Amino acid sequence: MPFTHRSLAAREAILVAARARFTEQGFDRTTIRQVASDADIDPSMVMRYYGNKEGLFAAAVDVDLRLPDLAALPHDQVAGSLAKHFVRMWGSDQGGPLSILLRSAVTHDEAAERLRSVFGGQVAAMVRRLLGEGPETETRAGLLATQLLGIALTRYILRLPPVVAMDDDEVVAITTEFIDRILGEPLPPRA
Predict the structure, then answer these.
(1) In 3D, which of 69, 70, 82 has the Cα closest to residue 177?
(2) What domains, with CATH codes, occur in the chain?
(3) What predicted TM-score, i.e. pTM, was given to this entire model?
(4) CA–CA distance, 91 with 131 (Å, rounded to integer)
(5) Are 140 and 182 within 8 A, CB to CB?
(6) Within 10 A of 22 (CB to CB), how many other CB atoms are there?
(7) Average model confidence (pLDDT) for the chain?
(8) If pLDDT is split at 50, 70 and 90, which confidence band does 1 have?
(9) Which of 120, 150, 153, 169 sits most deeply, having the most CB atoms within 10 A of its CB?
């Protein structure tokens, strides 16, 4: 059944309200009734479009990292390009799907699994394209995710003063160093 203009507008109003509630209250404290009230829509419509709170959450946090094609870049520009991409993305996502997902992943298993899926899938695929298949590729992708998520968590969610005080260029420079090490230097031997 095709969506009408009115149903598309209702869906968008629901998602805007849901993102605001999930950002403010997290997954556990947000209710369908609150979201419906904020969207000025009957709760049954939220259920009709999204099924349940989990379905609504999944739609509200549908995330594409929009990773740049790094394979065409010279090796010495890869880390800087990736660092700039993520700093810009996190900075422009305040209250958006990625911030909601990161904030909710700490306390909600489904959000944590979704975040693992996004970073495990998209970041790991990018690292495989850059480095090829190998025994360390997944480890490097995981370590890269720790840096990218760590910057986001400390700067935009926890708002640690020393990290917040840094300007974007400083964050990019430091993140570039970490990414270079993760992608290019030998990993310590495993026990």
Answers:
(1) 82
(2) 5-60 (1.10.10.60), 75-184 (1.10.357)
(3) 0.79
(4) 28
(5) yes
(6) 27
(7) 90
(8) very low
(9) 153
